[in-house]
Structure formats: structure tokens, C-alpha cells
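Field log, afternoon session.

UNIT: design team B
ACTIVITY: writing a sequence onto a fixed backbone
BACKBONE:
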């Protein structure tokens, strides 16, 4: 990684310098990276999310506390979209996920996740709430690729053949800030783990906030990227998941622990 890249990332206007106490954080993997043309890598360590590169800068360790690592995911041209006209001319909205995504759980290495083909369809419910556009997604119209051996790998190796994690959203409500391209979406989702036909877990409820800003937690953090001129962005979220009644799930996920999602995404506004 070149010195000028480090300087450019540190000057990014959307970076956070002080972690909010209520946000979530990000523990990195040590997988080797394949640098995508649309991404900027700034890090002492790198990992590949099916080609997407992320920047990772380790923060100082607090005494008797888990080390905290900050990650930057940058995509697109870096041009911030003036969204006012496009949004105000639209009535429906589509959110599509792409390749080069990631999922992280506890202290495991991050999963490289290909979310291409994922889609959520919603409506614009208000076009001027303090300069923001309110959006509400219909969860019956949401399709999220399962995390399994066909979509995900860890350290370059596919997940075990029987393993599958299904994500089923129950609500998705958020906003887009018209003048800046900032996005936040509150998601309430059920996650079901299985190793069929041997085992299927009870659903685990995971509330999280997908954001183009910085998401912080106890052991993980991630920084996204605001909408660019093509409607693309990087949405990140870190959620703290408490222990659940299913002992196998709690043990496998090291609960309580931070869960990370980093999504390369594209918005499409339908007139």
C-alpha cells in the first residue's frame, strides 16, 4: 500500500474519529486481498471480499480490553451524488446488492460474500423531511442470497457443503440525505443457521443499522461510502448479538459477539 493512498483515506470526509458509544465495531481477517479497480485499499492488513478491498487500521489497545480495529470500505468514483432531482422524480426504489461483500462473526476471519442478485423493493414515503427522503421497503419483496458454500468463502476456502445461513428481514425503514448521499436503513432480521438435514437452528433476531457512515462496536468497526454518481454506495453495519437459547448457536457464534455486514450496493429510483 502506497503512502499517498494512506494519506487519501485518512482525509476522507466521511471518516469518524471518535466511536459513538451506541455503535458497533469490526475485527479483521488476515485473508490476502485482490484489489478491485473500484476500491481503495488503505491498511496495514488487507482482506478480499471476492475482489473487494477494504482498508484496515488498528487502533491502540485499551488496557484489559479487546483490541479495536477500524475498517474502511470504499467503492465507486468517490464523487458524491446530488440526489435531489433523481429522488424527487421517483416513486419507487430498488436496492440491489453486488459482489465483493463481507460478513464477519465474533473473532472468526471475515467471510467473502457474493451477494450479487440480492434485491429489496420499496417506496419513497416522503421527499422532504429535514432534507431527507424517507424510504420503506416491503419485506415480502426482499431477496437476500444465503450465506453458504456457493456464495461465500473464508481465507479463500469455501464454506462446508452443508452449512447455510439464511437472512429473513422483518422490517427495513430508512432515509437518504438528498444533499450528501448519506444513507441509513434500520433492519430487523431473523437469521437461521442450518447444516441440513442434520440440524436447523431456531431463528436469531438481529437488529442492525446499515449506514454509509461509520458503524462501531465492542470489537469491530466499519466505514462505508456515500452514494456516488451511479447510485452506488457501500452499506456497513455492526450489531451486538446477545446469547440465545440455542446452546449450539451461542457456542458457534461465540455469543455475545459483534456481527458485521459490509455490502456493495446500488440504488435505482423508478419513476
Amino acid at each position: 500500500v502506497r503512502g499517498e493512498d494512506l494519506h487519501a483515506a485518512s482525509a476522507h470526509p466521511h471518516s469518524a474519529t471518535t466511536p459513538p458509544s451506541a455503535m458497533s465495531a469490526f475485527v479483521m481477517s488476515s485473508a490476502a486481498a485482490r484489489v478491485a479497480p473500484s476500491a481503495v485499499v488503505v491498511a496495514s492488513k488487507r482482506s478480499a471480499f471476492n475482489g473487494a478491498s477494504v482498508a484496515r487500521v488498528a487502533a491502540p489497545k485499551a488496557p484489559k480490553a479487546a483490541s479495536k480495529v477500524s475498517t474502511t470500505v470504499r467503492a465507486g468514483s468517490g464523487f458524491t451524488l446530488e440526489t435531489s432531482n433523481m429522488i424527487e422524480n421517483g416513486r419507487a426504489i430498488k436496492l440491489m446488492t453486488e459482489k465483493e461483500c463481507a460478513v464477519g462473526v465474533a473473532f472468526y476471519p471475515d467471510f467473502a460474500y457474493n451477494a450479487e442478485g440480492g434485491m429489496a423493493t420499496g417506496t419513497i414515503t416522503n421527499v422532504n423531511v429535514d432534507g431527507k427522503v424517507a424510504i420503506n421497503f416491503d419485506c415480502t419483496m426482499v431477496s437476500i442470497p444465503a450465506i453458504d458454500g456457493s456464495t461465500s468463502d473464508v481465507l479463500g476456502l469455501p464454506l462446508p457443503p452443508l452449512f447455510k445461513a439464511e437472512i429473513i428481514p422483518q422490517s427495513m425503514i430508512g432515509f437518504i440525505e438528498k444533499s450528501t448521499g448519506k444513507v441509513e436503513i434500520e433492519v430487523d432480521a431473523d437469521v437461521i443457521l442450518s447444516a441440513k438435514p442434520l440440524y436447523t437452528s431456531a431463528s436469531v433476531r438481529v437488529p442492525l443499522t446499515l449506514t454509509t457512515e461509520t458503524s462501531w462496536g465492542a470489537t469491530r468497526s466499519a466505514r462505508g461510502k456515500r452514494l456516488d454518481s451511479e447510485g452506488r454506495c457501500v452499506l456497513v453495519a455492526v450489531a451486538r448479538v446477545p446469547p440465545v437459547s440455542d446452546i449450539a448457536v451461542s457456542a458457534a457464534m461465540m455469543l455475545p459477539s459483534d456481527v458485521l455486514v459490509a455490502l456493495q450496493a446500488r440504488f435505482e429510483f423508478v419513476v
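LOG NOTE: The radius of gyration is 18 Å.
NEXT ACTIVITY: expression trials, pending approval
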